Amino acid sequence: MARLTLINFVREQWSTIPPLATANLAGKTVVVVGANTGLGFEASKHFARMNPKRLIMACRNPNKGEAAVGRLKRETGFEAVELWIIDLANFSSVSEFSREFDDDGGRLDILVQNAGIQTTDHQETSDGWEITIQVNNLSLPLLALLLLPRMVETGREHGAIPRLVVVASEVHYWANLEKAVLEGGDILRTLSSKEYCTPEIMARRYFDSKLLNIFFMRALNDRLPKSPGSVIVNGVNPGYCYTNLGQNLSGVRALLDWFMERLLSHTAEEGSRQLVWASVGGAGTEDELRGAYISRSEIREVSDFVLTEDGMTAQNNIWDEVINALVRLDSRVQKRVENYLVT
Hints:
Elements: H1 6-14, E1 29-33, H2 38-48, E2 54-59, H3 62-76, E3 81-85, H4 91-104, E4 110-113, H5 131-158, E5 163-167, H6 179-183, H7 187-192, H8 199-203, H9 205-223, E6 232-237, H10 251-264, H11 268-280, E7 293-295, E8 298-300, H12 304-307, H13 309-329, H14 332-340
Parallel strand pairs: 1-2, 1-4, 2-3, 4-5, 5-6, 6-7
Antiparallel strand pairs: 7-8
């Protein structure tokens, strides 16, 4: 399905959710970003019941994170869970998180990049970026690249096949990045600028950010060496779920979101099954999951635009811009690119 019509969307939302995939995670380390609520929390509970050696719940708010850890322990009986703090709206917090992980020296088998933001208002972070672009499309790539060595080394040292899961969305089919922006150079800065971010643009900002998630996932996969035990990176669509993602919406958009949630949405637990499938599913066919877009526990085709020549050009140009921006933020990114990726 390279296109998503409204009828297809409604049909998918009303169809039966595939069952939960399970695996034995004994001895393994799982990191879930955005784990204190919604999809991240439900996925963390599922992972906890698979008995990993370590489950790291990466959260922005310490109080909410501690409450989530306590709740997970009560509901699952799993004790090997840790709270780590990360604020994706602050690049220094992402860098510090990765340094702590390097110092910790542990393996990393599964990294679920679940955290994201949806807002219709232009908000600039202290780092000077529009908050959706920073959180969804710069901080998550920064974290992925900084943690990549731990995942590569886990594969080599333990004979494992680590997985990096980017939580995308089916709404990437509805994204609309103007040709003038894609061909104008400095794409990310344009998308982030206050002048560009009119109410009309911000109304679809979340859609566009999910397209950028797909671009990053595919571009990273293209540059990862393909060898036994090498890292699998994929993107997953959890479906439209009842979570607190829309908490920053207001006005008519908030009212519409409220109505649609009650009419169409899956539960957070149902959506989290897709995050888990992308992380542990498809045993025996792992190579097919490299760079794959996963929905309903199966590989689906990405949007028509992504597959066009213009889409592939945009993907590569945006990759270059992301890397250039991240290298200026953290010098370790350049070494990651040189040592762990191929041209």
